Every structure is written in C-alpha cells, then in structure tokens.
C-alpha cells in the first residue's frame, strides 16, 4: 500500500554561489521609519496619516509610487517641496537591523557566497548600508533609481545575474512580499520567502540564525 507521507527532498546549499536580498522587511525592519517618513509629509500638508493599506503599499513600492497613492494631485507640488527639505539621515536611526544579519553576512562572505541587494528604495540604500557598516558585503546594489522599471519588473535582478556571471540556478533571492515573488518568477531566479509562509517559494526562512545554520549544515531538507 503506498504511503501518504511525502518523501524528503534536499536543497544543496553548497551549490549556492550568490544570495540577493530585499532591503525592507528582510535586511531591516523599516516599517517604523517608512511610516514616519510618509506621515511627516502628510501631516506637514495638513492631511491624515496613512491608513494600514497605504502603509502596506508604501512598504513594497517605490517612493514615487507611494507618493502618487497617498498625496492628492493638487498637493503633489507642495509635497515635493517638503521632500526637498528632508534628508533620510533624519529617519535612518529608526531602522532596525534584522536579528542575526551581521553574523549571516560574515558567514556567507567567509564561504565565498556573493551577496547583492535588489530593492525598490530609490536613493537611500547606499546611505543605509554605510550607516550600518555593511557596504563591503553587497555588490551590486540595485535600486529603483538605477533601473528604468522597478520591481516587480525583473530588470534589477537580471542586472545582478549578468554582473555575477553564473547561472540563476546557483543563486537565490530572499524577499518577503508578493512583489519579490513575482520579480523572481519573471527573472527565473529561485525564490526564498522570508517570514511569509503565504508566498510560494523554494525555501521558507523564518530567521537569519536559521538560514546560517542551514548553510553550516550544507543542505535543507523539504518534505513534499
């Protein structure tokens, strides 16, 4: 009689030569900084703070897309003026590095695993990496300012594939949203979902400590 139990399947992490990271919700908990950034603009214009739906949208999309959603057309010129007097340095200390981040990047670098960033942030990513002493670990750093079309368009991720020069089967993208999932599907890159079990992914990662342990062991076992 056939067994109903699934058979274990191993993902050999020794074959992974590169990992691409999303920023917000993966490398950093930045919901608080995003909320304060956009709400500062709204309150300066005499508008109500963002709704929960607006917060979710702004968290996953570019600043231009978020502003187009939350700012009425007749106030966008004034909003741009407010933005012009703001710097991300005013908000950056609200960003919280994901627990285990520094240990993970040290471990991956020691194993010769390349790391990159693909984010819908526009102009603040390099500043964030510098502030937290992470600049030397990630190359390339692809942002919405460096591509003609941001995520979920695969342009940024394809640029990383081209820069690294090895096949997509030897790399993965670690993201936390449906935007990230769609990006990987369109780029043909294996997707690892971070702290989001609702996403379809090759691997579901619940913490950086867990991911580092899997790399130390050399494989991850899945029950199909």
Structure description:
The chain has 224 residues and is of the alpha/beta class. The protein folds into two domains: 8-30 and 95-223, HAD superfamily/HAD-like (Rossmann fold, 3-Layer(aba) Sandwich), CATH 3.40.50; 31-93. Helix content is 39%, strand content 17%. It has a six-stranded parallel beta sheet, sandwiched between helices. Helix 2 (52-60) runs antiparallel to helix 3 (63-70) and helix 5 runs parallel beside helix 9. The chain is elongated, with a radius of gyration of 19 Å. The mean pLDDT is 92.
Label this structure with key terms:
six-stranded parallel beta sheet, single chain, 2 domains, Rossmann fold, two-stranded antiparallel sheet, 224 residues, alpha/beta
User: Rg, please?
Assistant: 19 Å
Low-confidence segments, given as residue ranges, are none
Instruction: Encode the helix/strand succession as letters.
Output: EEEHHHHEHEHEHEHEEHE
The overall average pLDDT, rounded, is 92
Sum up the overall morphology in one term.
elongated
Main β-sheet, spatial strand arrangement: 6-5-2-7-8-9
Major β-sheet annotation: 6 strands, parallel
CATH topology of the largest domain: Rossmann fold
Name the structural class.
alpha/beta
Record field, number of beta strands: 10
Q: Provide the CATH top-level class of the largest domain.
A: Alpha Beta
Residue share in helices? 25-40%
Instruction: Tell me the span between the first and last alpha carbons.
Output: 19 Å
Number of domains: 2
Per DSSP, the total helix count is 9
The CATH superfamily of the largest domain is known as HAD superfamily/HAD-like
């Amino acid at each position: 009689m056939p067994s109903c139990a699934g058979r274990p399947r191993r993902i050999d992490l020794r074959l992974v030569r590169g990992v691409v990271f999303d920023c917000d919700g993966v490398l950093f908990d930045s919901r608080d900084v995003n909320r304060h950034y956009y709400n500062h603009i709204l309150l300066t214009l005499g508008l109500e703070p963002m709704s929960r739906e607006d917060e979710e949208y702004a968290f996953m999309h570019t600043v231009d897309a978020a502003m187009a959603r939350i700012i009425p057309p007749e106030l966008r010129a004034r909003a741009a003026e407010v933005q012009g007097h703001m710097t991300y340095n005013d908000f950056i200390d609200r960003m919280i590095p994901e627990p285990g981040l520094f240990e993970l990047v040290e471990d991956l670098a020691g194993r010769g695993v390349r790391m990159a960033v693909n984010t819908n942030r526009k102009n603040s990513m390099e500043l964030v990496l510098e502030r937290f002493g992470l600049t030397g670990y990630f190359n390339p750093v692809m942002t919405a300012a460096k591509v003609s079309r941001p995520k979920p368009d695969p342009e940024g991720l394809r640029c990383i594939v081209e820069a690294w020069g090895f096949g997509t089967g030897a790399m993965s993208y670690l993201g936390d949203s449906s935007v990230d999932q769609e990006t990987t599907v369109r780029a043909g890159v294996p997707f690892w979902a971070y702290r989001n079990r609702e996403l379809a992914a090759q691997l579901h990662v619940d913490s950086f400590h867990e991911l580092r342990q899997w790399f130390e062991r050399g494989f991850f076992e899945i029950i199909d």
